[in-house]
Amino acid sequence: MAQRRTDQDVLSKKDNESDNDLSIRDPVNDDSTTHSSDQILVLHPAPRARGWQRLLCSPFTIASLTLFFTLMALLWPGQRPIHPTNYTERTRRVLSSTPLIDGHNDLPLMLRIELHNRIYNGLFDFSKRLLGHTDLKRMRQGMWTIRDTLEQIDVTRRFISEHPRDLKYCDTATCVRKAFKSGHIASMIGIEGGHQVGSSIATIRQMYELGARYMTLTHNCDNAFATAASTIAADPKRHDEGLTNLGIIAVRYMNRMGMMVDLSHVSHQTMRDVLSVTRAPVIFSHSGAYGVSAHLRNVPNDVLSSLNQNGGIDMVVSVKEFLSIKSPEQASIYDVVDHVLFIAEACGWECVGIGSDFFGAALAPIGLEDVSKFPSLIELLMQQGVTDEQIRMLVGDNILRVWAAVEKRASEIQESGEKPAEEEYEERYWTEGLPGDPHMFRRGS
Question: How far is Cα 111 from Cα 152, in angstroms, rounded to an integer?
Fold first, then answer.
């Protein structure tokens, strides 16, 4: 478990930190290594040294060159050594080379509730400090995804277009990395709950065409695809029916499209069922570890084990009730650390990511009140011995790897000649047409 501090100042600077050097280094060069040839003794006749050779070989010249290259190593961007306990500078260096991707942020829901999706009326300025968990300045300090079907996809796309200097809409993993390199905040769309597609696989297909790149199979209610965690929590004696027959078809068709299957909000049996039929890695966009907090919204140990084999990812949520079911009012950034470390231990560092659910809950954990506080989370993890490479995996590399794998698998399935799914909800009503319609086929009497 993460060691708690006695005070609440999780943002205080470390004693060894350089307050003057605020530049963002380029860690792409940090991975460079010095290659030295094997030590081999070869005897040759000694040639007579020329004048410039004698100059280069003089002790004074060698000492001067040594000093020069030492200073260059210290001053060249990305090459300055960082003390292992300088967590703030290590965090800056990691985030300067790796995009921090939050798997779930409900900002567009607030646009719907508070503005009725009207973002051009002059009342809304995203560049200024806003209440809640997210605005443009805090996103720049720390780091955002989405909800609510056609109108919300529309307002999300318009919202991104309204901020071209800062935001970039992305529908591929490659686009995210390009956006990050160009200084933009990559912004993606996900659909939270299969009820939003009207129990229709054809509608899932259209949502994908409109830009949604993941769909959570359920939200807080069952639907034609699967059982939700909330319905099991409301009636613990109820049998968990898991994934339906239509849900199996939907999951496998999402694999064919290249749409990520999100298992946050689904029941534990639904998780197990999906992992047994999916043909591509899955995600939990905002869930914790059941082994840390026994809330049904969190992922149990056996599912984490299956997730490791699947190649998927659990993106740790920041909702107090999920972080600490015993004392949610006291849930803090340290509980988030505990969930991250538990998942990494149970599933591997390849399995873990960040999925805050900011704007999806009233109160965020102490110390992680909004998106600007993500660097504080990274520093605390470093204090627990987490390496820079593991941090890179956590903040962005893992989800981008999963996304790319889903895209690759979709291409393979499509190239095999598999047709799009046509199945529909069994209880769907089909219109019969009007008497006298010119039918294509002869109808039975």
Answer: 9
- Pseudo-torsion of CA 219, 224, 230, 235, nearest 10°? 170
Catalytic residue among 89, 102, 148, 192: 192
pLDDT at 42: 32
Q: Is 195 a catalytic residue?
A: no
Cα angle 211, 264, 246; round to 5: 70
Q: Which of 188, 181, 225, 180 is nearest to 203 (CA)?
A: 225
Those residues whose C-beta lies under 8 Å from the C-beta of residue 402, and which sit 6 or more positions away, are 260, 281, 283, 311, 312, 313
Neighbour-count burial for 27-61, b at 16+ CB within 10 Å, e otherwise: beebeeeeeeeeeeeeeeeeeeeeeeeeeeeeeee
pLDDT tens-digit series, residues 372-403? 888 899 999 999 999 999 999 999 999 999 99
Count of CB atoms situated within 10 Å of the CB of 429 = 6
What are 320-347's pLDDT values in tens digits?
999 999 999 999 999 999 999 999 999 9
> CA-CA distances (angstroms) from residue 41 to 37, 38, 44, 49, 131?
12, 10, 10, 20, 70
Catalytic residue list contains 265 = yes
CA distances from 72 to 19, 21, 22, 75 (A): 21, 16, 19, 5
Indicate the DSSP class of residue 268.
H
Decide if 83 is catalytic: no
Instruction: Give the CA diameter of the chain.
Output: 110
Backbone angles phi and psi of 224, in degrees to 5? -70, -10
